[in-house]
Amino acid sequence: MAGFQELIGGYHRFRTEGWSQQRARWAELSEGQSPKVMVIACSDSRVDPAQIFDTSPGEIFVVRNVANLVPPYETDGGRHGVSAALEFAVTQLKVQEIVVMGHGACGGAHAALTERFADAEQGEGGFIAHWVDMLDEARDKVRAEFGEGPEAVKAMEHETVRVSMRNLRTFPFVAEREAAGDLTLHGAYFAIADGVLHVMGNDGTFAAA
To answer: What's the rounded mean pLDDT across residues 10-32?
Structure first.
């Protein structure tokens, strides 16, 4: 696995190849960005949206966090990183589509299902526990239907997408633009084991793209 020095080596290859070969594109991007799509994905190192969707710089506006979660709309004065990014993408960049992409072998979804960090202190899992507790209701539903086996894990990973989609619509500026036909929301799920992307239909089920 790459350490920092390997990353520096990668940077030099990028400067020699990617940057210099697409100099006109980078010059254009230096003047601003106008992506049409926002992708909300997991921080997991195995699921890079730019690689999965084979995009170039400037094409997608990406937010990544544990379990690709969008919190509900809140005005409690807290520091809301996902909400700020969402607000910027929708109201300033005026993206036309938002994709919430879950994935297989998601540690955040597994932590929510098993309550692995329940009652842990900050620095020992407490931040994770509080973040994924927005999946508590979904966890109870999954446990009731599937228990805690492999099927439950996959169902929980799917639920991270559904919960985030519901929470997206609690933001007034998202709901208003969606109702006006100016914004479309999509759910997706990338299976690491076989590299297949699944897209969520209107009924909430996932099918291979």
So the answer is: 89
